[in-house]
Amino acid sequence: MRPMREEEMRGLVERAKWATICTVDESGAPYAIEATPFRLDGTICFMISPRGGTFRNVGRNDKVLLKYTATWDGVRGWAGVSCFGRGRFVADDALLVRGWAKLGLVLGQDFSAAAERFLGKEASPLFMVQVDHMTGRCSAKAGETLLLDAQEKALAEEPA
């Protein structure tokens, strides 16, 4: 087991089909949901309910933790990345349309009707995270290269 190198962490984050979004509620208790990430102009984004716990929590405290994990080879191989940053919900119609289109590409679906439902609304599901720093650990030994091909295969096999 060893810390992951920067390029390994970025590789896992780029390939991940889902992430856990961690926030803190008003009582200080942790709150987490899973969602499918996508990128807009290099920023990690999600579509999250603008009426749910993440929306409420980020309105009070914009600090978020994104967790990405992967396993392969019968869980003998594993990697995990924690991205620490700040999140915000963005009510910009042009970004919202692009975001739904990008999520549609990731999931192989057409979300244009979903995008239209949120146009012109104050509460937007577009959640953008500016990552300040990342940490990661993996099952590779010191000096050993993380098997990104095996990681890629494992991520491709994860249920959608």
Report on this model:
This protein is of the alpha+beta class. It is built from 5 helices and 8 strands, in the order E-H-E-E-E-E-H-E-E-H-H-E-H. The chain has helices at 6-15, 53-60, 93-107, 112-118, 148-157, and strands spanning 2-3, 19-24, 30-35, 38-40, 43-47, 63-72, 77-89, 126-138. Strands 1, 2, 3, 4, 5, 6, 7 and 8 form an 8-stranded antiparallel β-sheet that branches. A hairpin with a 2-residue loop joins strand 4 and strand 5. The mean pLDDT is 89. InterPro entries: Pyridox_Oxase_N, Split_barrel_FMN-bd.
Q: How many individual β-strands?
A: 8
Quickly give the CATH architecture. Roll
**Biggest beta-sheet profile:** 8 strands, antiparallel
Structural class: alpha+beta
Helix share bin: 25-40%
Q: Write down the secondary-structure element order.
A: EHEEEEHEEHHEH
Seen as an oligomer or otherwise, the chain set is single chain
Uncertain runs: none
User: Rg from C-alpha positions?
Assistant: 16 Å
Distance between the termini: 28 Å
CATH overall fold name: Pnp Oxidase, Chain A
When the domains are counted, the total is: 1
Instruction: Tell me what portion of residues adopts beta-strand conformation.
Output: 35-45%
Instruction: Sum up the overall morphology in one term.
Output: globular
Average pLDDT, rounded to a whole number, is 89
Question: DSSP helix count?
Answer: 5
CATH homologous superfamily descriptor: Electron Transport, Fmn-binding Protein, Chain A
CATH class annotation: Mainly Beta
Protein name: Nitroimidazol reductase NimA, pyridoxamine 5'-phosphate oxidase superfamily
InterPro entries: Pyridox_Oxase_N (IPR011576), Split_barrel_FMN-bd (IPR012349)
Pfam families: PNPOx_N (PF01243)
Domain Pyridoxamine 5'-phosphate oxidase N-terminal: 6-110
